[in-house]
Amino acid sequence: MRKINQLIIHCSATRPDWYEGQTGKAQVAEIDRWHKDRGFDQIGYHYYITRTGEVVDGRPIEIAGAHARGNNSHSIGVCIAGGFGSDAEDRASEHYTPVQLDALHSLVRNLQSQYNISEPNIIGHNRVSSKACPGFRVQRWLSGRKVIEAHEAKPERTKATQSKTVKASAATMAASAGSLVSVMSGMDEIAQYIILGTTAVTLLLGLYILRERVRAWADGWH
Ligand SMILES: [Zn+2]
What we know:
This protein has helices at residues 24-37, 98-115, 138-153, 164-184, 189-218; strands spanning 6-11, 47-49, 55-57, 75-80, 122-124. It has 222 residues and is α/β, with parallel strands linked by helices. The protein binds zinc ion (ZN).
C-alpha cells in the first residue's frame, strides 16, 4: 500500500443542476469519461459526493489518484459535485448543499482516522494550485465545523433546579430543618439554644455545599 498522509478536496465545477435526478454512479461514470478523454486511466478522484450527500467510490484508494499535480502519490482525492463559478475565498455553503457538506465532513473524518492524516494536511486543491477549486478554504471550513460541534455537544442548561444533585441536597436540608422543629417543642431553653446553634451551623454548611455544587454545575459538572 502506498503511503498516504494528505487529503485533497476538489469540486466537479459543474452547475448545481448538473445530472440532477441521476444516480451517483452515473455521475461518476460521466467524470470517468472526461478524465479518460484527458488521458487518465480512469476517474482521477478516489471519492465523489453527490448534491444529495451520496458518497460514491472512484479510483481504488490503493492506486495513486490524478487530481493534484505533484501531490498525487501520497494523497487521497475527494470530489464534491458543484462549485461552478466559485471563488477560492467563498464559503462552502454558497456552493454546496448541507447534506453534501455533512457527508463530506464525515468522510473526511473517517479517512483522517483510518490513514492517520494530520489536521493541517486536509486541504483544498486551491492550497496546492492557483485554481479556485473546491471554491472555499478547507481549513477555515473545518475550524468552523469544530466550533459548531463543540457548541452542539454541550447539553442545554436552563435552570439550576434541573440538576438532580442540586435538587437532592436542597431536599435533604429542608427535611432536616423540618424534623428539628418538631423535636424541639417540649425541650428546655438551653437545649433549644444548643440545637438552634447546631442547626444554624449545619444549614450554613449545607448552603455552602449547595453553592459549590451550583458552581460546579455551572462549570459543566453533573
Ligand atoms: Zn480540483
